Amino acid sequence: MTNVLFICMGNICRSPTAHGVFEHKVAEQGLSDQINVDSAGTHAYHIGEAPDPRSQAMARSRGYDLSAQRARQVETSDFTAFDYLIAMDRANYDNLLKIAPEDQKHKVHLCLSFAKNRPETEVPDPYYNDGFDDVLEMIEDASDGLLDHIKNN
Predict the structure, then answer these.
(1) Neighbours of 81 (CB within 10 A)
(2) Domain residue ranges of the chain, discontinuous segments joined by +
(3) How far from the centroid of its chain's Cα atoms is residue 65's Cα?
(4) Which of 91, 111, 123, 146 is the most exposed place for a label (fewest CB within 10 A)?
(5) Sorted alphabetically, which PANTHER family does this protein's record hold (predicted)?
């Protein structure tokens, strides 16, 4: 079993979107019994909350369901439980490296490092600027690349 954890700041916009998109793509390829997907935030702002309604609406418009997800905070145990810890941006990437055990830091990656068709290096937080459509497109591309990477390794 390969375990993938997507991480943003509050776990209500970007990481639940990535969680839902990647989980959907894994299921489409018949790999749900081989790849486990989850999401978390580096901060405790929204623990227990559902994803932002705007994230859910944008995801739903493209066939992804985020409604069962609830926000949680990253825990130190996640570094041993997950094979890939995928940060949405550099700030969260750096936060993860600060709390990661030394022998687990190699598991931390930037989401868009797996994208094949996007020039950006970070998935921006859409919470204050309404960029939910762009965020979804970035995540779809990165999800395809990550899934290819996992299948090839």
Answers:
(1) 13
(2) 2-152
(3) 14
(4) 91
(5) LOW MOLECULAR WEIGHT PHOSPHOTYROSINE PROTEIN PHOSPHATASE, LOW MOLECULAR WEIGHT PROTEIN TYROSINE PHOSPHATASE
Q: How far is CA 88 from CA 30, 65, 75, 109, in A?
A: 26, 20, 17, 9
State the Cα–Cα distance between residues 55 and 126, nearest whole angstrom: 9
Residues 153 and 132: their CA atoms lie apart, in Å, by 31
Our CA angle for 126, 61, 57, nearest 5°, is 45
Separation between Cα atoms, residue 108 and residue 20, nearest integer Å: 19
**What is residue 153's three-state secondary structure?**
coil
CA dihedral 88, 121, 55, 144 (to 10 degrees): -90
Question: Considering the entire predicted model, what is its pTM?
Answer: 0.98
Q: How confident is the model at residue 129 (pLDDT cuts 50, 70, 90)?
A: confident
Residues labelled catalytic: 8, 14, 125
Helical (H) or strand (E) element with 6: strand 2-8
Mean pLDDT computed over 42-50: 97
- The Cα–Cα gap between 18 and 127 comes to 15
Give the CATH H-level superfamily of domain 2-152.
Response regulator (3.40.50.2300)
User: In this predicted model, what pLDDT tens digit does every residue of 66-107 receive, in sequence order?
Assistant: 999 999 999 999 999 999 999 999 999 999 999 999 999 999
- Give the integer Cα–Cα distance in Å for 45 and 80: 24
